[in-house]
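Action item from last week, closing it out:
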Amino acid sequence: MLPADPSVHAEADAPESTTSRLAARFTEEVIPHTAYLLGHAIGLTHQRSDAEDLVQETMIKAYVSFATFREGSNVKSWLYRIMANTWVDRHRSSLRRPAEQLHGDLTDPQLASQARIEGSLPSAESEALTSIPGEAEVALSELPPDLREIVYYADVQGYRNTEVAEMLQIPVGTVGSRLFRGRRELRAKLTERCCADDCTARRSA
């Protein structure tokens, strides 16, 4: 009787060995970012329970696709991209049209230039989010999801336009466009709230 070919056992054990290595890498490289993802998820959803669900779904998707993740790449950007896409997908069904059609990119060179300039300096909206977090948080939560995430990453978390583009895998021009529109809408909402508060104060005086 011929001896068993050892290569057959090696091939049979290979998938299990690969899975074990991926699981070990996932535990080492991804799991430590769970708390950081939760902080971002809370900023996006404004509800801890929703944020926890979002992080859980993100982790499941990350685990399923971890075999395609290139070792040595930026794992944070990869995770943020998965989470942001998951979050947008959750809201997209409630939009009348896809976000790209609804908000589009800036086509006016002057507006695009202004968005680039604003992206390199602290914006008035960023200052508002810091100085009056309660009012600004409510106004931010009222923005359309695709605009809210850009304003959140740029003005709350302080990421550069290029970093946001990398995380979300969208063109830098799209980031600038949405940031410009998001800031404009946020500014209008904050102004409206301030005027309403002023009128209320006058009536009660």
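Closing note: The two ends are 103 Å apart (CA to CA).
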